Request: fold
Amino acid sequence: MVDDHELVRLGVRALLQCQVSASGTTVEILEAGSLADALALYERHEEAIDLVLLDIALPDTQGLNGVTQLHARYPDARIVVISGTGASSLAQNGLAQSALAMGASAFLPKSANLKEVLSFIRACGVLGSDVVDGLPPLSSNTPPSARSLSERALQALSPRHVPVLQLMLEGKNNREIAEAVHLSEGTVKNYVSTILLRFGVRSRAQLISSLR
Reply:
């Protein structure tokens, strides 16, 4: 479990331990608060790690760079990307597509419910089916995907543009985005212009309005 928020790690650990105790399953949970710590843990316990829950907002990486670095060093690692950003469902969808394209096994928003979290872990063979089958059913109130120009534009974005879009939606300026994704401010300016053009808008305000 890689997340820089101790309460998040504590919550996931408690969630898993609570659910597996009744089934008799034993699950060891390793925790890291940064990508560097996660890489060091993985190196020491590579053979024993079945799954990596990786937050995309860590002190030493931003966006999907963590997926790229972890997957490059350990191509066989099974990674589930977790995201707690306040971006719209369309932006989350774009992040999910990019994460999968970079080698992640799944994408999970932190707003997901208990059964979704455990289903992802079960899919990797960490939990038994009885652990998940006893949980309440998923809500059927998930809003449908928007069938719009904005959705098509989002799906057409390259993986390089998605982290920039995410930070734009968080209200970051070009300098802040450049620092977060480790690009020059000029490159970020070009990315921003491309994103605005793709969505057919002239300003960040219009972009945010179209995706909210």
